[in-house]
Specification:
This protein is an alpha+beta fold. The chain is built from two helices and six strands; from the N terminus they run βαβββββα. Strand 3 and strand 4 form a beta hairpin.
Length: about 140
Amino acid sequence: MIRFEEYRHCIPVQIRFVDIDRLNHVNNACYLNYFELGRVRYFNQILGGLINWELEGFILARTEIDHIIPVLLNDEIYCCTRVIKLGTKSITIQNSIVKKTDAGLLLECAKGIGVLVAMDYKGNNSIELPPNWRRAMSEFEGY
């Protein structure tokens, strides 16, 4: 089971029929989309007005996923997101897909790590994390 208190940001995820594969569970490729939904909502909430996404932001440089238990079409699932490391030019994000059981418990179905690099989109080059981005994420995460 997941320690839900480790995450300060969780969103519900709607499972679509198209997400289901021949084995009647969510296809492994869909988890990347769920993680992306979590990241986007995290950034909108935490970095909201601090980033002009036309000029700067993040690109995904690396991702990995551990699949633990299957997710089915009618499961109630959530994507939990947190920043676990702030580097000079990058951040490391941890995601967890959890599903609610009939007893109300949250079971971890998949977990993943993503490394995102801060970018100047116009110049097409990496940048150091701006202090206001770093501060907003640190304060939200409590470190």
